[in-house]
Amino acid sequence: MNDEEWLLGGGLHGGKHGMIKMAPLELRLDNDDMGGLSALNHGEIGGPVWFIHDAVEGGVGFSHSIYDHFEAVARRTLERVDYCDCGNTTGCPACLMSSQCGNDNAPLHRYSTVSVLTGALDQLGYSHEGGGITDELRL
User: Angle at Cα 126 formed by Cα 32 and Cα 70, nearest 5°?
Assistant: First the structure.
């Protein structure tokens, strides 16, 4: 994986982790009931993507709740990642890392995660006020 792929992969992976971590705070559900997948080039999508899915066999609608409340969950995730005081490019257990990650929390990249989440919100017509590391990205 080259540097550019690692950055994008870290942003996608971080976005997925962050949304799974923050969804319980917004939607009153347990993040153990969700899983996810991120890929730089998914065969069916033809590009970069992350998925969040129910971890319960057959599903019970948790991931659908995240879809229905994407803006709220994405904003909460963006705020947590953007303003985390860990100072680590790869994040920390409070903002990006997950003990359930099957990829040993790699790649993860806070700056790229902020960029990916901001881009997703912008593309859907939602704005982001900036602050935190977002301001550093503009320098």
Answer: 20
- Cis ω on the peptide bond leading into residue 24 (within 30° of 0)? no
Which tens digit of pLDDT belongs to each residue from 92-130? 999 999 999 999 999 999 999 999 999 999 999 987 666
Burial 99-131 (b: 16+ CB within 10 A, else e): eebeeebebbbbbbbbbbbbebbeeeeeebeee
- How far apart CA 103 and CA 12 sit, in angstroms, is 13
Show Cβ contacts of residue 80 under 8 Å, excluding neighbours closer than 6 positions: 18, 21, 22, 94, 95
